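Re-run with default settings, no changes from the original entry. Doing this only to confirm the output is reproducible before filing.
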Amino acid sequence: MKTHIKKQFFLYFILIVLLSLSVNSSLIADETLHSADYWPTNGWRSSTPEEQGMDSGKLADMLEYINEKKLTIDSVTIIRNGYIVTDAYLNPLLKFDKKHIIHSCTKSIMSALIGIAIDKGYVKDIQQPVIGFFPDKKFANMDERKKAITIEHLLTMSHGIRTQDSFLYKWKGFMKMHKSNDWVKFILDQPMDAMPGERFDYSNMSSFLLSAIIHKQTKTSTLSFARKHLFEPLGITDIKWSKNLNGIHKGWGEMWLTPRDMAKIGWLYLNKGVWEDKQIVPKKWVEDSTKKIKFPKSFRKVYDEDGDLMIFKSIWARTLYNYFWEISDGYGYQWWIDDAGIYSTIGYGGQYIMVVPEKNMVVVFTSVLKKANFSKPGVILKDYIIPSVSSEKLISPDIAEQKRLKSLIKATDKNVKSVKVPSLPEMAQKISGQTYKYNANKHGYEKITLTFKPNKKTAMLKHVIRNYEHSLEIGLDNIYRVTYIRGNQIALKGHWSNNNTFVMLYNYIGNTIRGKSTITFKNNKLVLLNDDITQGKTERTGQVE
C-alpha cells in the first residue's frame, strides 16, 4: 500500500513539473518584447538572441559566411531592444574597448551637431547662406549660384561646387585642398558646376564646411561642442578626431570610436534623439535627416577639371550605385536611406551604423574591406541579420545554436600559435642594418632599414617618411608585435619566403591600413611590392644609401 502511494505521489510530482514547464513555455511565447527599461550610458547589457526574438542559428550562419568569404571584417555588434545580442571581434588584435576609425560615419555625427547648433541658436536654420558665415574672406569664381548655397545644400551634398573630392575623381580635389593653407577659402574658391540643389555629388568638403561653421559660430572647437552636447550625455568619453592646421576638425571623417559607442549613435537616432529622457538631438531633425531627400541612384553627372561632362564615368557611377551598393537608395542629411526603411551611416572600408526601426535594431560593422566588398555589410544585414528576427516575443532558447554562435565568436579570440624561427638566410645577415634610400615616390617614403639578429624572435624596421623617423618591431615567430607611434598601434610580423625575399604583414589596429609588403633584395637594390587591402598594389624601389 505504501509503495502504491509513493508511486502516485511521484506521478503527481512529475505532472506538476510538466505543467509548470508548459505554463512557463506559454508565458515565454506570450511575452511581447519592448525596448529595454535602461539607457546604455554606462554600458550595454547583453542577452541571448532568443531572449530578443532572434535566431542564434542564423547569426552563427552569418559568422560562417564571413569566414568562408574571408571578409576582413573587424567587428559585428548587434543591438535589439537595447540589448547586445552579438558582439563579435573577428580581428584578434581589436578588443571591444578599443577605438576604430569610422571614416565617413563621422558625417552623420556632423549632421547631428548642426541640428543641435540650430536648436541652441548658434545657427539660425538650414536656409542660411554659407558665404555669410565667412564675411572676412573673399572668394574666387563668385556668382549668384555660389551665393545661393545654404547649409541644407551642404547637408544633402547638392551644393554644386566642383569639389572633385570623392572616389569618383580619385580624390583629386581632396589632395589639392590638403596642400592649401586655408581649406574654407580653397573650397569656396572653386567654380560651380550646377545650381545648388540641382544634383547630388558626394563631397567630403561639404562636411568640412559644416565643421568650420560650428567652429566659427560656437567660438570653440567642433570636438569640444560635440563632447558637451552629444558625446558626454551618451556616456561616450573615448574619442579621437583629427583637425587641420587651422584647428578645425575634419567633419568628413578621421574620427575614432569604439564599436559599442558607435552603436549609441544609432540607438540615439532610433529613439528620435532622446537619451536618458532628454532630447539630445531635436526629434524633427532626426526625422528630416533620415528621410530621402536626394537620389544618388539617378543619373550621376561626373565632370572633369574643365567642367566637361564625362559620359562613360557618369554611366559607370550610375551603374555602381544602382546595382552594386546596398542600403543606399537615397540621401538625407548626411545619412544614407534605404527604401526598406533602414537608414545608415557608411564609412570607407566598411564602417557602418545601420538603424532598422521596424526591428528596433542597430547594427554596427567595423572593417578593412577591399573596394569590391565595401557593400558586404549591407548584404549581410539583409541576408542574415534581419532574417534572424523570427518573433516580436521571447522564443525558446536553441541551446545547440547558441553554443555554435559562441564558439564562432570565441574562435576569433585565439591568438595564432608561435612557431620556431628558422635560421636566417645569408641575405638577412648581409642587408641587416643597411639603410636603403627609396627612389622618388608620391607617398613621401624616404629610407628603410631592416635589422636582424641570429636566434632572435623579432627584427626591427626603421622607416623615414616625410622627414619623420620611426622604428617598429617585427615578429618572426608568427606572432604580431605591436608598436605605439603617435597614438597608433602598428602590428607587424614577417618571414623570409626565400633567400632574397622578406615578406611582412602589417596591421594598423583599428585603422583601414592593412596588407602585405614583399621586399626583394638584389645587387644593393631593393624592390618593395605593397599589397594593401583597401589601397591596392604599389611598388617602390631603392638602393643602398
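The first strand starts at residue 45 and ends at 46. Residues 5 and 11 are 10 Å apart (CA to CA).
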